[in-house]
Design goal:
The structure is a homotetramer.
Chain A lengths: L2 H27 L2 H8 L3 H7 L3 H25 L4 H18 L3 H10 L7 H23 L8 H28 L12 H16 L9
Helix pairs in contact in A: 1-2, 1-4, 1-6, 4-5, 4-7, 5-7, 5-8, 5-9, 6-8, 8-9
Chain A binds a DNA duplex through α3.
Keywords (chains A, B, C, D): DNA-binding
Protein name (chains A, B, C, D): HTH tetR-type domain-containing protein
Pfam families (chains A, B, C, D): TetR_C_29, TetR_N
Chain lengths: ~220, ~220, ~220, ~220
DNA sequence: TATGAATGAGTGTTCATTCAT
DNA sequence: GATGAATGAACACTCATTCAT
């Protein structure tokens, strides 16, 4: 009966498993055998259901990006205050990046490769995310709440710091293991906590100084 | 006679060429044939001179990181003012990332892979970079110049934003070509200019508000 | 009700479609998917109805050979004059080869493969065809109408020339397209017309010279 | 020293071995592993020296055709009498087909496939063979030695009969083994002897009747 | 009877590495 | 020291066949 639900579930499981493998090994490092094994299906089934390695990667990539874009857009829908919108943006992005373990590595590799495998649709999706932030910043500037800042650079700071922090995790832990004497707890907050830090820093950076009126 | 100089020169040329290829294709995507061709040497010569693919990659990676660490340490040597030190840090990092085209993609991929190929020596090198920033921030905080901030997160914001911005370039240009109607010049500043923006934003974020007359 | 008629019809359609595919691609070049698609049935249905690829090929091959053998035997039944029998033989063979497009390629490939897939029954069938010609020639020789010739070689000449000519068609047309300046209309007669030419040549070759008695 | 001679020898050995395998199995039936094993080289070496399966097949095909064309042209160079030229043509073709075991199956399969893999150069080569015969026939007709015949059909008869006879061999032997009671020695002459038979038959078919005292 | 889905066993091709010179 | 040639071990992908429904 629920053939559709069932099979889209199968495909979804394949994509979920593939996302993990691709995030760990990258496109070229991932083996199709491994992708199939991780998904618990026969290699030929993978080809039958989705197509070749590239098609699988495209599907994974699009899915990751679309999910983040959707979450952010949805979260911002009900918030109108500019500062809260910024906080919401950073919070959702951080939560997504923290929870969906594979998102950050996949995105970093994709950027590193010059977006070689980035389908146009995915770029559009990313544009939605950027647009949400840019619009909010613009609005805040017009309302005199924010200083005039380069919105794109603010975007880079939020996305770059949180993606890097999240993907960094294995290196940080390895480092802590090798150099336990210099263990710094601030290196081991969750990505969500990191999001709050970043949110605070970004707002401190962009908020107009109220004291300007103090004479 | 100057055999040594000559061959170290050759080795340097090989590493430089290999860095470009690795940055474009990643470790798994790069082909040894291609690496040899790019370096203008026979494949077997490459093995004779440097060793296998992994050894070549390690050499490239260490070289990239060491160069950045050296440049930053050197630049900070003569600066003592905390704010100027922050500016110098960001500026040097941005200049390096902007000029050495292959640095950002290589670092992003390395982080994405969980530092799988990061030799301990390289991690130490990165620690030096982080240490330089952390110390400066700590000092500024103690001097009442900076608010108490999470130094590691500030580091992530600087490094993340600039690395991402630099590596982003091909995607930004592709996007501009496909959607010329929404061309935004702020997406196309140089990495050095981006560094200044980031420097300003970071300082705005961390500087203590002098007028807050804490009584 | 007419289940049998219907399914034998279906099987016949499958065999007809498969013959075309096999003639174009050969046994190893044909894909079961393609054979099923060409027949308009599901792949699993094909297995259910006929069996595996080899069984399908056997069925196709036997059918092709049997048809030719039947046609020739039937045509010769009512002809007793030796010369006319030779003409009938060539004519029927040419007509069959010309009309049943897939016959020639299938036979050529089968011969080329050393008859690897030729079932004994099919060989017997071919023996009937050869026998019909051989008997006629023998009879003609005994009647002083034909010179004593190697019957098998005459058979090769008839079958070889017409099969080759028919299967040749795509090459001839391609050649004509690439070298239109040397277009020779004698390369583009129908296989039936070719049969008449071959019939004339063969008879000229084997007929006893009546003038031997002149002197 | 004789690097060239040596390596062209290696390639030649590969081509010779591949010709045998392709003639037995056809393009699709031949396995690259098998081709390499037959040539006594590693599979990767085969790719290094020649290229992929298709390139190998092209090389084999061109070589086979060129050899026959060369032999025939060379043999006809010194013969001017029309009848002798016809005999020479048939004899050389038969000898080639008989000695070079793989030639006939390869050609039959190629024709069967519609010349799908026949490079233009090979078609030209075949044109030379056909041209040699056609010119001789035309000349003989003009000299009143031959009846006006369809030269292309004569060509088909010669080439078709001998190719078929040669490729037929396994089937004939198998048949003889299964039906020893009807063993006919005329089925087991050499291809060269078959060539003489065909030569006689063809000449008998095309020679003008001298006694027809055309007044 | 019919079929979408699944799969074990290949299949052509590539690759990092080594060797002979 | 340098290089054309060689190769074992993968690798992405396909195919004939079967299975569950």
């Amino acid at each position: 009966m629920n053939q559709t639900a069932e099979s889209s579930n199968t495909i979804d499981e394949i994509l979920e498993a593939a996302a993990v493998v691709f995030s760990e090994k990258g496109f070229d490092g991932a083996r199709v055998d491994e992708l199939a094994r991780a998904a618990g299906v026969n290699k030929a089934t993978l080809y039958y259901q989705i197509g070749d390695k590239e098609a699988l990667y495209h599907a994974v990539l699009t899915r990751v990006i679309k999910r983040t874009a959707n979450d952010i857009e949805q979260a911002l829908e009900t918030v109108s205050d500019c500062e809260l919108r910024i906080r919401a943006f950073v919070e959702i992005f951080a939560r997504n990046t923290g929870n969906v373990r594979y998102a950050a590595p996949i995105m970093l590799r994709e950027v590193a490769s010059g977006g070689r495998n980035l389908p146009e649709s995915a770029v559009q999706e990313m544009g939605r995310v950027l647009g949400a932030l840019t619009d909010t910043l613009q609005q805040g500037i017009e309302q005199g709440l924010f200083r005039p800042v380069n919105a794109f650079m603010v975007h880079m700071m939020i996305v770059g710091s949180l993606t890097l922090y999240s993907a960094n995790e294995p290196i940080r832990h390895r480092n802590a293991k090798h150099n336990p004497e210099i263990h710094d707890p601030s290196h081991f907050i969750t990505t969500e906590e990191a999001g709050r830090e970043v949110g605070n820093l970004i707002l401190a950076a962009i908020k107009a100084q109220p004291q300007e009126t103090q004479s």
